[in-house]
Design a protein that fits this description.
A: 253 residues, alpha/beta, Rossmann fold, 4-stranded antiparallel beta sheet, 8 helices, B: 444 residues, 11-stranded mixed beta sheet, 9 helices, 23% helix
Chain lengths: 253, 444
Amino acid sequence: MNMLEIRDLHVSVEDKEILKGVDLKVDAGEVHAIMGPNGSGKSTLAQVIAGRDTFEVTKGDILYKGESILDKSPEERACEGIFLAFQYPVEIPGVRNSYFLKSALNSKRKYRGEDEIDAMDFLALIKKKMEMLEIKKSFMERPVNEGFSGGEKKRNEILQMAVLDPMLAVLDETDSGLDIDALKIVSSGVNALRGPDRAIVVVTHYQRLLNYIVPDVVHVLLDGRIVKTGDRTLALELEDKGYADVQNGTAKK
Amino acid sequence: MAHVDTYIKDFARFETRVAKSTPVWLRDIRKTAIDRFAAVGFPATKDEKWRFTRVRPLLGHDFRLAEGYQREALLPLQLDELCMDDRGCRRLTFVNGHFAEDLSDTGSLPAGVRIGSLRSFMETDPEPVQRCLSRYADSRKNPFVALNTAHIYDGAFVHIPKGTRLEEPIHLLYVTRSNGNPVVSHPRTLIIADEDTRASIVESYVGFDSDTYFTNAVTEIVVKARAEIDHCKLQRESDSAYHIATVQAQIGRDSRYKTDSVSLGGSLVRNDINTILGDEGIDCTVNGLYLANGHQHVDNHTVIEHTNPRGLSRELYKGILGGRAKAVFNGRIHVHPQAQKTDAKQTNRCILLSDDAQVNTNPQLEIYADDVKCTHGAAVGQIDGDAVFYLRSRGIDKASARQMLVFAFANEVLENLRIDRVREHLTADLRRWLSEARGVGEEG
């Protein structure tokens, strides 16, 4: 099944065009990696999928399970199963992690016409996920991301993902700021979500993460366009030769 | 100056009416105060302390002093919803400035504790009142204090004798009900906590929807050595009320004092919170939260005087303003030359929910000692758009996301309230306010 389809997507911020016609198709069961240097538009693409309204879609469409989502609010997209793991998770002083996570889960359940989760069931659910991600119990009582280390913030993103159980997960530079141990933990959390009904899009600058989350398809995003698509060997090639080569390649074309 | 004259004429009538029950010493206090008020009148915006707060709207009303307590004035209205759950607490209730014995509860207290109407104590047991009344709140510095002092007649008196610890808070409830005849009251509160005492005192000022009236309150608090006192002033007057109040606290050696001022109601509100660290080794916290919407105007002026060494003061004021509300925060910390090793920190933060809301914030640090640690910070902003998107991306709808963020912002003051029932009451109040206030759920 087609999970995500992006057609000729043009996106601007304050009249500056960032995405200049992106086409992308991700089927259920697949993991796609989008690679590209800084400023190529990777994060913009990730945020636009999640519904960030500071970006303006000037042309094209984004389809989720075959339906356009451009008119849907970020919360509707989330409730329907889209999840964005932020590159820079936002600190929210005064809101406890557990309260936040429970509110998020209940919003999604409400959207689907389900009852709110029972407090005991919620505790059991997060306990399991936290163990998997090697997250300390005290984590839940702290304000969302406030004073968290880079690694803790990223693990918190993956915890939210695991609890919210999305159909389409977009991971924006989830590897940045992670040491090798944290990278392994985070990757195993992501891999646990892999399955025939789900799709994952990994946005990353480096191929390192792809050693742990092995993609089926790799795309190269340059200057707002996908310039090359291949299998995982493309990532290794990029690692070897750098983006400059791909860039030169397109320039010659 | 016609309005000043009106108040002075009203004072003369009041003075004649209560002459019989007035001791000479009180007559002198009143006389000095009214003379002061007559000389200076109401403050104008050219007065630096009143620069951003015009009292002119107040002068457009013909307020009358209520002559006595009438139970009927309140019927059939219920007080319960307006104030915290004070079951198990000692409570003094005042209606339009007059003591309402039937709505009060002063039963069973440790020996030597005095709680009751100021007026009856002045008649039967004047010595402790006379020793402190009007010694601290300074009529020369604030014309409204002068006006209140001139009208001292009734109010609350709390005296906690040496070594006494009270478990439950004492609740002082000031209710105003104008019933179409705008009233003015000058509630006076005197709280004396002797050495080694521990107590909490909650002052509630409440009114009913759209009632027009003027509350001009003065509270004097004397905290002696090694005492631990928690004081809260909760202002939830009617949305058409004028509320002007001074809390003057004199703190003694090695004691711990915390005062919270929470302001929700009123159309024109001015709070002066003056705290004097009058001895060594004092730990003091001065916190506040103000919520304003529509055309409300809320002015908080705080002064913390470090007059002696080793004083610690922490001040946190937070505001949330929607509609065309205006707020003023002026926080002065004055470190006297002998107040070495002072540690003072002041923070004022404000969220504006609409383009038309406005705040003037002015931290004033005056430091005359050289071995001190003093910091201050002020920030005015809007609801953080990145945080809203983050919450929405997790499925939380926009209105809930904004409410959650504003609640968390204000909750920093509430979660530090040590009196559980006040915290619970205010948390519910805050949630209600947030669900009703325009500009919280949607951009204003």
